[in-house]
Specification:
Radius of gyration: 18 Å
CATH architecture: 3-Layer(aba) Sandwich
Oligomer: single chain
CATH topology: Rossmann fold
Organism: Shewanella fidelis
Structural class: alpha/beta
CATH superfamily: P-loop containing nucleotide triphosphate hydrolases
Largest sheet: 5 strands, parallel
GO molecular function, one term: dephospho-CoA kinase activity
Subcellular location: Cytoplasm
Main location: cytoplasm
Number of strands: 5
InterPro entries: Depp_CoAkinase (IPR001977), P-loop_NTPase (IPR027417)
Order of helices and strands: EHEHHHHEEHHHEH
Length: 201
């Protein structure tokens, strides 16, 4: 059972997912905040029922699942609604992630959280790992990957904790500005470190 938790984070386009997948290839269980966030609002869930009670049927698609685009529209226009939604979902996401960490069979577990520091989730983990790249590269990679404008990416980067802030808070940092082969070596080195930390914890 994995009781030693590494919080993996990084800004948009930094390569968090790539790094997480290399850890997974080494046999480490991943608990992904984005996946859990979708699970707590799937059809039939308490999360979705509460959302529908609060916002009405307008936030549902024809098949009864959550209309994310509509919900996003509502909460971006009204900060108090965003606050309401966050206070509903964040505790559910947190509980589900911790439960999944407890069930993990690997020596340690990687919790993948895009807004680890922003949402104070670093308090739930034993150690934090930041995937770091320059804002310019972040922009380049995200524009290429998501077919969004540079302006949109700038706004997203602006809404996240600054690079300096994240670097000052992270226990470990992977510089992901190079090749995938270099990345694999860095992950392997950290994997060895985390195994020894987990075994001694």
């Amino acid at each position: 059972m994995a009781n030693f938790i590494i919080g993996l984070t990084g800004g948009i386009g930094s390569g968090k997912t790539t790094v997480a997948n290399i850890f997974a290839e080494l046999g480490i269980t991943l608990v992904d905040a984005d996946i859990v966030a979708r699970e707590v609002v799937q059809q039939g869930s308490i999360g979705l029922n509460n959302i529908v009670q609060h916002f009405g049927e307008q936030v549902l698609l024809a098949d009864g699942s959550l209309n994310r685009a509509r919900l996003r529209e509502i909460i971006f226009q009204d900060a108090s609604q965003r606050l309401w939604l966050n206070s509903l979902l964040h505790p559910m996401i947190r509980e589900t992630m911790l439960a999944q960490c407890k069930e993990a069979q690997s020596d340690y577990v990687i919790m993948v959280v895009p807004l680890l520091f922003e949402n104070g989730l670093d308090s739930l983990v034993d150690r934090t790992l930041l995937v770091d790249i320059s804002p310019e590269l972040q922009q380049q990679r995200t524009v290429a990957r998501d077919a969004v404008t540079a302006e949109q990416v700038k706004n997203i980067i602006g809404s996240q904790a600054s690079r300096a802030e994240k670097l000052s808070k992270a226990d470990d940092v992977i510089d992901n500005q190079g090749e995938i082969s270099a990345l694999k070596c860095k992950v392997q080195a950290l994997h060895n470190l985390y195994l020894s930390l987990a075994n001694n914890s």
